[in-house]
Amino acid sequence: MAKLLSGREVAAALEEDISRRCVALREQGIVPKLALVRCGEREDDIAYEKSIRRQAARSGVETESCVLPETAAPEKLKELLEELSANAKVHGCLIFRPLPGALAAKQREICNVLSPEKDVDGCTAASAAAVYTGEGAGFPPCTAQACLEILDYYGINCRGKRAAVIGRSLVVGKPLAMLLTARDATVTLCHSRTEGLGDICRQADLIICAAGRPGLLTGDMVRPGQTVLDVSMNFLPELENADGSLGGFVGDAIYEEVEKTVEAISPVPGGVGRATSAVLMKHVVTAAERRLK
Question: What mean pLDDT is predicted for residues 185-207?
């Protein structure tokens, strides 16, 4: 049976550290504050916002919700981001993505208006450059950083190890490949169309699933001694729960198959996703500390 890499335990440890740092900041007259920028009323965005606000309350971080209609002009959203960038009382800003409607076509342009010092989820080009070069302002995407936090918490050293990252998004796959490389791992960046994916995965010491394809990592693609981090949250309406209800989340790995073989694995839900919100708070507090210095 594989060791369970619980995101809840990682989040609890992060929350303890964040709360301590928030107290220290407040003693110096600084209240860490996160602005939540949402356009429209998508149910998943609203649910995520509520989750973040709960996490912030536990951590000692203040939040401010900035909501625009889905039909807002790009200039209106840019104006809001400029105001937040100039507001000394706001230390971090999270833009709910993907942007809806006509805003989606200008998402990259809009995000780049935000000051990289307040880009706590790595959505600006400056933050991406910082991830790739190791220099500059900004932060890596929270989900990618959450993977590293889990590895650190459980004492899993990447140095000299082979890592297979499945998924090439700018939110997880690509930045995580760079972050692991910076830790001296040898990384193969894969995707759902990679030929010989099973062979690559079997050769790896660390596998990160972030393609958003349920069932992508099967039991015959892994071997003993490996660590698997399953980042994806795929909703399956036909999934039968223990209480007989239908609908639930799964990762990219077929958990029941993979867990029998590998040394350690993160669950879905309760794994990387649970740690991600805590990482967001860590970034906000770090931004506040940088401002103080």
Answer: 97
